[in-house]
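Case study 2.
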Amino acid sequence: MSSSNLYTDETPKEVKEAKGLHLITQSTPNGQKVQILLEELKELYNTEWTTTFINIQTNEQKKDWFLRLDPNGRIPVLVDNTQSPPFSVMETSAELLYLLKFADKNDEFGFKDEYERSQALQWLFFWHGSGAPYQGQLNHFGKFSKEKIPYAIERFKNETLRVYGVLEIQLSGKYTNEPKEYLAGNGKGKYSVADIGTWPWVKAWQFSGLEEEDMKPFPHLKKWIDRIAERPAVKKGTGEKYSPK
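Prediction:
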């Protein structure tokens, strides 16, 4: 959204007076996607931004000031105050791609080759549209719903495991005979926004109520989870910095 009416009297001061990039977030899997990429960009290019933390349990993201930035009322939101008027970006995959263009001049987390870039987009969109919604519903019905509905829990568990199986096919090289370390790119692949947009959800499989037995069919996926977890920027993007007291 680009509008001179982006901010109102209700907008928190730290948001409307921010300079440069400003992130409004909570350290959920969706928030962590953008947090991680920003930390990666900081390590590589010294990219700078400021952050506002909100608590989605209080429905702050449903207030008018927030809906002006993201009419869908979901975190995170990225605001680019280098533009006049400021430019807001909603939806995590769009935010990751915006940051690639804004700050990743060498395509370290994207691709210059059009076919590799297409592959990264395919996997980024796959998880955004076919992975996160299922695992999110598994979390809702399995952990947060006041009424436990066995059918809903079983359905979304099975669908989450199914999409894990799709990731396992790609990483194992089942049909290419060439195992991959990352989701997109030639050969073993390259760490990119495809991984950043997927990992924060998949690494939380235990939080979603899945057990070791459920994960046995996905050995390459589990290695991928551990591989990405060791990156310093990933540790920062999911760490105490984003867990304000």
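The mean pLDDT is 96.
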